[in-house]
Amino acid sequence: MYHSIYITDRPGSAPDRAPVVEQHRAYIKARANRILAAGATFAHDGKTVQGGNYIVDMSRAEVDEFVANDPFTLAGIRQSVIIQPWIKACFDRAFLIAVAPPGEPDVNEPLLSD
To answer: Where do the H-state alpha helices sit in 1-110?
Structure first.
């Protein structure tokens, strides 16, 4: 199942980030086959890292482990983490959801492509 992970870092955590940035990159690279998209989020200056966004193909338990063992988490720079199930409705400039079924929306509704 896909999950969205939105992370904010502690203000002023840049000095704690620098020593583990290469470990974090290696951690992400080793799991890239489970990540649809990932990247840092920035302040309005376009330079100051404030956190990150991920879209991953993992169970909830795997997501919890992924976040908990990230070198940035272990270094104590994370302020908050929001994890939610996610559906690939629009991806790589293409709208993917077929005709919506009647009734309540279902995260398992058919997609035109996976």
So the answer is: 14-17, 21-30, 60-68, 71-74
> Which tokens sit at 64?
């919890």
- Are 96 and 111 a contacting pair, CB within 8 Å? yes
The secondary structure element, H or E, covering residue 95 is: strand 94-95
CA pair distance 49, 72, nearest whole angstrom: 12
Q: How far apart are CA 64 and CA 109, in angstroms?
A: 25
Least Cα distance to 81 among 58, 52, 56 occurs for: 52
Single-letter amino acid, residue 108: N
pTM of the model: 0.82
Summarised one tens digit per residue, pLDDT across range 45-67 is 999 999 999 999 999 999 999 99
